[in-house]
Amino acid sequence: MVYIENHNGIFDRIVHLVERERKPKKAKVLLLWHDETENIKYYQDLGKKVIVSEHGAGSGYDYANTGHKLTADKILLWGTRSYEAMRKEGYNGELVLTGCPSVEGLDSNRVIHEGLNILFVPSRGRQNKDEFEKENLIVLDELNKTPYNIISKLLQCQDPKKYGENIKTSQMDDHDHLSRIWSILRYTDIHAELWHP
């Protein structure tokens, strides 16, 4: 019996593959979307196995650079950048490179379109937000000088007036957040994003 915390739908493709338990105390295994050390320790002390999934592109990398020690029995990572960052922090046997569990046939669902579409995802760093926004706008200005179609993918906390006319938004806590991302990627040829480790 597996308890699944299916935040923003990251486990939609696999929930039907396991025998689910609705109460974590009754489950043998907990599959969680992020690490909350106090909760994990509590359930491990009860004899439960705890698996934590990276919950967004780069979140494993974020964990590796915060000094926060993950205590889960297994850590599912979506990509090699997160995997290598976690290995450098001393994680080994608990790491499992899975890819994103919610991607389903993205390549086969590509949409044929005119021109070249560049998806710009502005950084939304937790610290130095004003500095990040300045950098974002410099990058967007350069992208707008190209002959290509620029799509800005924003979170609802970002001001759309600053990021052009072709805006797509989603909220990370919404159940359909990742499916919205996949629908945007169907039209995307190049992905441009500022990365702040």
Explain what this protein looks like in three dimensions.
- There is one protein chain.
- This protein has 197 residues and is an alpha/beta fold.
- It has five helices and nine strands.
- α3 links the parallel β4 and β5.
- It has two domains: 96 residues, no CATH class; 87 residues.
Descriptive labels:
197 residues; alpha/beta; 2 domains; 5-stranded parallel beta sheet; 4-stranded parallel beta sheet; elongated
Percent helix range:
10-25%
Largest sheet properties:
5 strands, parallel
Order of helical and strand elements: EEHEHEHEEHEEHE
Instruction: Tell me the number of helical segments per DSSP (H or I, 4 or more residues long).
Output: 5
Please tell me the total number of domains.
2
Task: Characterize the overall form.
Answer: elongated
Short synopsis of the structure:
The protein is α/β, with parallel strands linked by helices and 197 residues long. 25% of the residues lie in helices and 20% in strands. It has helices spanning 37-45, 59-64, 80-88, 129-144, 177-185, and strands at residues 2-4, 29-32, 49-53, 74-77, 95-97, 117-121, 149-155, 167-170, 190-193.
Layout of helices and strands, plus pairs?
Blueprint lengths: L1 E3 L24 E4 L4 H9 L3 E5 L5 H6 L9 E4 L2 H9 L6 E3 L19 E5 L7 H16 L4 E7 L11 E4 L6 H9 L4 E4 L4
Parallel strand pairs: 1-2, 2-3, 3-4, 4-5, 6-7, 6-9, 7-8
